[in-house]
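thought: user wants a sequence for this fold. calling inverse folding tool.
action: design(structure=
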């Protein structure tokens, strides 16, 4: 792009279907490019360790279980404050490293805010009838306002997939714009549930509508769909963000979520961001990884790098 996007928050714009209406994603080409990115020569040594540390810095550490309790959230927040053992963090020279955020259900936001006080780690909340989103709009907006009042700095909303499948872009735009307004100063991460959208062309169009409606981030999945984050879907979405930035001058962040479990996955998605959008998108204000389960694998890899001894991920302390 000729000029880098502004770091100011995406203000959105009036709906303009001419930006995406005729977009047709070349699926074989996208899949080939994604395979090429995923097959890059593996990183080793200090270079690999640096990328894994950055993955932690960009991770939304998450608990979205039906049996969540304030105690579980407090343990998760303690892990977010100190994701690596002190000796490992010291050996890497990253004392004070934290995750990018902690993500919980709205009723757990207050507990997370209290547990993270003074840490600088923001609390994100899923909302709008997560994960299906099949609630009346008024109730979804009320859930956003509740989470913000409890102290959430970020809101991960879910869209109505039927709007995309019917190509009802005005309805999708109006829904997301209303959610953005309900967020106030809290940043909105729009979950597209890409596994439900059928085609990459639909993924591109939904991404563009979400950004026109003022989304601060576009996010692949709830983690509850049959298919969650994949490199081809992610490539489609980051190219939509690149196109939007080129037209408006505003940067929109990206969050892949679900299905990523390994240190290798953490590196693959960061390589995608750097190759397609540039190093600026490897910071937590524009990139998040919604994959808490891979923290143990990253921690094991970094512990082995520092100590020189192999470590089993399951042997590490869990949140």
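)
observation: tool returned 319 residues.
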């Amino acid at each position: 792009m000729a000029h880098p996007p502004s770091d100011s928050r995406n203000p959105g714009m009036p709906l303009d279907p001419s930006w995406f209406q005729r977009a047709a994603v070349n699926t074989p080409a996208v899949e080939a490019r994604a395979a090429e990115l995923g097959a890059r020569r593996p990183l080793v040594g200090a270079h690999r360790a640096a990328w894994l540390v950055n993955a932690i810095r960009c991770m939304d550490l998450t608990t979205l279980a039906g049996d969540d309790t304030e105690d579980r959230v407090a343990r998760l927040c303690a892990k977010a404050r100190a994701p690596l053992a002190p000796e490992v963090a010291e050996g890497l020279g990253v004392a004070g490293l934290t995750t990018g955020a902690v993500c919980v259900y709205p009723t757990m936001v207050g507990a997370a805010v209290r547990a993270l006080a003074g840490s600088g780690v923001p609390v994100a909340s899923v909302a709008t009838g997560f994960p299906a989103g099949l609630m009346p709009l008024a109730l979804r907006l009320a859930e956003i306002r509740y989470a913000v009042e409890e102290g959430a700095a970020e809101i991960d909303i879910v869209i109505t997939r039927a709007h995309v499948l019917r190509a009802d872009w005005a309805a999708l735009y109006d829904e997301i714009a209303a959610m953005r307004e309900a967020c106030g100063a809290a940043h909105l991460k729009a979950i597209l549930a890409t596994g439900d959208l059928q085609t990459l062309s639909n993924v591109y169009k939904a991404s563009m509508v979400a950004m026109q409606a003022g989304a601060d981030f576009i996010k692949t999945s709830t983690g509850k769909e049959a298919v969650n984050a994949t490199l081809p879907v992610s490539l489609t979405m980051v190219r939509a963000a690149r196109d939007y930035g080129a037209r408006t001058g505003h940067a929109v962040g990206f969050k892949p979520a679900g299905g990523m479990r390994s240190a290798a996955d953490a590196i693959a998605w960061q390589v995608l961001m750097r190759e397609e959008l540039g190093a600026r998108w490897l910071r937590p204000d524009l990139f998040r990884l919604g994959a808490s389960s891979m923290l143990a694998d990253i921690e094991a890899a970094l512990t082995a790098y520092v100590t020189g001894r192999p470590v089993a991920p399951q042997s590490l302390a869990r949140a």
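thought: summarizing for user.
answer: Here is the designed sequence. Residues 17-313 form a domain with the TIM Barrel fold (CATH 3.20.20.70).
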